[in-house]
Specification:
GIY-YIG endonuclease, 4 helices
C-alpha cells in the first residue's frame, strides 16, 4: 500500500539555520524534533524546531524526491521558497495533519 508524505523545513529562533526533512507522520516527527529525541542529531544541536515550510505528497517517494531536490538548492532559493508561503516565518501548526 502506498503512503503519502511531507517535506518540511525547520529553523531555529534566529532563523539562521535551515533543516530539510521528509516524513510520513508529520506530527510525530515534529514532536521528535521539539523534544530532541535524537540528542546528537542536527536539529537538536542547532535547536531547529520551528516548522516554517511544508509540502504534502500523495506518495512518499515523491516527497523523498522533493527533499533531495531542495537539499541541492542554494540557501537563498530555500529562503525565497519559505517567504512565498510564510513571509513572516510564523511557526506552522501540525494539528491538521496525519
Amino acid at each position: 500500500m502506498e503512503r503519502g508524505g511531507y517535506v518540511y523545513i525547520l529553523t531555529n529562533i534566529n532563523h539562521n539555520v535551515l533543516y530539510i526533512g521528509v516524513t510520513s507522520n508529520l506530527r510525530n516527527r515534529i514532536h521528535e524534533h521539539k523534544t530532541k529525541i535524537h540528542t546528537n542529531g542536527f536539529t537538536a544541536r542547532y535547536n531547529c524546531d520551528i516548522l516554517v515550510y511544508l509540502e504534502g505528497f500523495n506518495l512518499i517517494e515523491d516527497a523523498i524526491a522533493r527533499e533531495k531536490q531542495l537539499k541541492n538548492w542554494k540557501r537563498v532559493w530555500k529562503i525565497d521558497l519559505i517567504n512565498k508561503l510564510n513571509p513572516n516565518w510564523i511557526e506552522l501548526d501540525t494539528e491538521e495533519f496525519d
